[in-house]
Amino acid sequence: MAGIYETCVKAVKDGQDLSAAKSLVLKDPRVSKRARTMQGFDNNIGKYTSLAYLEAEKEAF
User: Fold this and answer.
1) In sequence order, which ranges of the chain are alpha helices (DSSP H)?
2) What is the DSSP letter of 36?
3) Domain boundaries, the chain
4) pLDDT tens digits, residue range 18-59?
5) 61: pLDDT confidence band, cut at 50, 70 and 90?
6) Are 14 and 32 in contact (CB under 8 A)?
7) Rounded CA gap, 52 and 57, in Å?
């Protein structure tokens, strides 16, 4: 799930909020490719993005 974490890192560096990061994550081809095949994707992508964003903020601090 590098597409989620790396996108969140970039969003944090660019000063974007969590909702902007989620939008960017959903556009990442590595993530969108998995959306079609990953069971529970729609229910969990927000959680995954939130966790990755918090981790990226922690690392940037």
Assistant:
1) 2-13, 18-27, 29-35, 41-60
2) T
3) 2-60
4) 999 999 999 999 999 988 898 999 999 999 999 999 999 999
5) confident
6) no
7) 9
